[in-house]
């Protein structure tokens, strides 16, 4: 670890937080249906869309209607994109005459992109036409909006009392896309274009390189995809290597910018939540809970990667950092990016559930890999668009319930009593996440189809399978790429885990909003448990660590932890 590296990490994180504060005010204005500075520009497009869809934007919905329409929209888009990928050979912008995507890979890919996961068992530049890539970009806008609008419905369930309606999902959807994602995506696409990311409908460009050799380069509408890929915490890139490909991530500035794009909106949503519930202290406390976890994760990864692999040191390799040697574990990393930014990127992409990568996660040290897994297993360290906040609030409900039991009082949350229904739904959401990871993980390790994709023996092979299911259920999409995921077995089973891992928790969480919105607001009393400050911070953080450890430690012990101790003892698996 170097002072310069630590300074780089602090600078990027600080800039994200500073940008998130004003952005949170803008987001709050949007979803409180208040005027914004973009009204004159965007209102005509919004109104035209409402007329085209024949939607009454002021007409609010119950939580069940809101949820049903949201799910139907998702499933319709899923069907359309499945057909586009399957029959891309009959569609335009396919200059390379790529055939239709095989059904199992198509099934996995369509589900993956509609759920904000963007798990890619393919190389986009090798199998996807530009038309198919643009269809996936469309889903990157809508999937980000889906998580966001369900979080807004949850917040309204907290804010409103003795009420029935949580908003209009059409209005929220359109506002999220038109007022947040499209403007920001255009801005950042232009920046990426200025840094060297291609933006063209040409699929290949023939060049002569510096050695005089002719070479064919894969290009396309890359800059526009990179911007929403990261702003929407999607992670699915134009290229197989994602941000490790220089056209997606040309230099250290774009690397830092990519981290900024991933994290700013998820952080802003925590602050927006405080504005909408009129309790900024409560929101800041949750911010510090998530920040503590994020900083610890970054510190562990950076220290492990900077320390390097002891096996290389035993073989005489110099793994100490110097003026001309980055030192540490540089396997799978780009030298011009360095270990510090790579460690920050890896932690950010798993914490914010983006899944975009600028390095080979499979080549990280065992404990670094464990931290990447842990961030996705918790799935609330700011998390993806809306979903991270939903998961944090779900854990808060469980935490205040436990605290209420400890002091012998009926648990309360922001002036509303937490009853059996809310606790049951919160518990279902939390354990569904774990169940959908661990059960298919066990199936994969006990069947021929699952074992056939493992090429690395021992604990690391187990970690690769665990990472695949964790990444899928957490809507992340990054991978320990040593696992062969492009088989019928993994395409199908991961497709189902992605689907249920996305929608089962959301259904439970929107149902919690429906229960909370009907409740009366109770005035504070001397016995009311504080919902901000160090005590509340400790309860929430303790609940997250305790439940996370009890749920996932056995699986982690068999994978990355076992691999770490084997490495320390000098044992290799061949």
Automatic annotation (TrEMBL):
Subunit structure, interactors included: The system is composed of three essential subunits: KdpA, KdpB and KdpC.
Highest classification ranks of the organism: Bacteria, Deltaproteobacteria, Candidatus Acidulodesulfobacterales, Candidatus Acididesulfobacter
Species name: Candidatus Acididesulfobacter diazotrophicus
GO terms under cellular component: plasma membrane
Membrane topology of the entry: Multi-pass membrane protein
Functional summary from the UniProt entry: Part of the high-affinity ATP-driven potassium transport (or Kdp) system, which catalyzes the hydrolysis of ATP coupled with the electrogenic transport of potassium into the cytoplasm. This subunit binds the extracellular potassium ions and delivers the ions to the membrane domain of KdpB through an intramembrane tunnel.
Keywords of the record: Cell membrane, Ion transport, Membrane, Potassium, Potassium transport, Transmembrane, Transmembrane helix, Transport
Annotated transmembrane regions: 6-28, 66-87, 134-155, 176-197, 256-276, 283-302, 389-408, 428-453, 489-513, 534-557
Coiled coil: none
InterPro entries linked to this entry: KdpA
One example GO MF annotation: P-type potassium transmembrane transporter activity
Compartment(s) of residence: Cell membrane
Similarity field: Belongs to the KdpA family.
Name the UniProt record assigns to this protein: Potassium-transporting ATPase potassium-binding subunit
């Amino acid at each position: 670890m170097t002072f310069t590296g630590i300074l780089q990490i602090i600078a990027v994180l600080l800039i994200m937080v500073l940008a998130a504060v004003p952005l949170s005010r803008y987001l709050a204005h949007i979803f409180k249906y208040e005027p914004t500075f973009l009204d004159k520009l965007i209102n005509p497009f919004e109104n035209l869309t409402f007329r085209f869809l024949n939607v009454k934007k002021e007409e609010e919905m119950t939580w069940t209607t809101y949820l049903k329409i949201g799910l139907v929209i998702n499933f319709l888009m899923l069907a359309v994109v499945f057909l586009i990928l399957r029959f891309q050979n009959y569609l335009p912008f396919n200059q390379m005459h790529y055939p239709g995507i095989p059904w199992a890979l198509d099934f996995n890919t369509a589900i993956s992109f509609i759920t904000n996961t963007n798990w890619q068992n393919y190389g986009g530049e090798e199998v996807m036409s530009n038309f198919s890539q643009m269809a996936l970009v469309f889903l990157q806008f809508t999937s980000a909006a889906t998580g966001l609008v369900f979080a807004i419905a949850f917040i309204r369930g907290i804010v409103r009392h003795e009420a029935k309606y949580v908003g209009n999902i059409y209005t929220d959807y359109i506002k999220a896309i038109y007022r947040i994602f499209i403007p920001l995506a255009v801005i950042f696409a232009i920046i990426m274009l200025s840094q060297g990311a291609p933006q063209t409908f040409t699929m290949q460009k023939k060049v002569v390189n510096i050695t005089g050799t002719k070479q064919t380069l894969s290009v396309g509408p890359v800059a526009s995809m990179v911007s929403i890929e990261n702003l929407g915490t999607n992670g699915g890139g134009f290229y197989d290597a994602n941000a490790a490909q220089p056209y997606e991530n040309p230099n250290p500035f774009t690397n830092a910018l990519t981290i900024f794009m991933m994290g700013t909106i998820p952080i802003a949503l925590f602050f927006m939540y405080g504005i909408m519930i009129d309790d900024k202290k409560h929101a800041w406390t949750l911010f510090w809970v998530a920040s503590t976890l994020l900083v610890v994760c970054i510190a562990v990864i950076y220290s492990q990667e900077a320390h390097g692999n002891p096996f290389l040191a035993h073989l005489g390799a110099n793994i100490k950092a110097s003026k001309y040697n980055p030192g540490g574990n540089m396997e799978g990393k780009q030298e011009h990016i360095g270990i510090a930014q790579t460690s920050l990127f890896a932690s950010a992409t798993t914490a914010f559930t983006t899944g975009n990568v600028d390095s080979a996660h499979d080549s990280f040290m065992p404990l670094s890999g464990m931290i990447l897994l842990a961030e996705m297993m918790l799935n609330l360290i700011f998390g993806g668009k809306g979903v991270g906040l939903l998961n944090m609030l779900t854990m808060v409900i469980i935490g205040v319930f436990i605290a209420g039991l400890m002091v012998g009082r009926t648990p309360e949350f922001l002036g509303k009593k937490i009853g059996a229904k809310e606790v049951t739904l919160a518990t279902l959401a939390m354990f569904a996440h774990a169940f959908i990871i661990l059960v298919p993980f066990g199936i994969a390790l006990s069947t021929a189809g699952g074992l056939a994709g493992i090429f690395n023996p021992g604990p690391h092979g187990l970690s690769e399978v665990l990472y695949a299911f964790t990444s899928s259920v957490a809507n992340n999409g990054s991978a320990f790429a040593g696992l062969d995921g492009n088989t019928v077995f993994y395409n199908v089973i991961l497709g189902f885990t992605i689907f249920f891992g996305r929608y089962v928790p959301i259904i439970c969480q929107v149902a919690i909003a429906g229960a909370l919105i009907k409740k009366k607001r109770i005035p504070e009393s001397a016995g009311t448990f504080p919902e901000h400050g160090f005590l509340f911070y400790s309860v929430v953080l303790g609940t997250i660590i305790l439940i996370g450890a009890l749920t996932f430690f056995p699986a982690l012990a068999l994978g990355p932890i076992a691999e770490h101790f084997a490495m320390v003892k000098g044992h290799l698996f061949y």
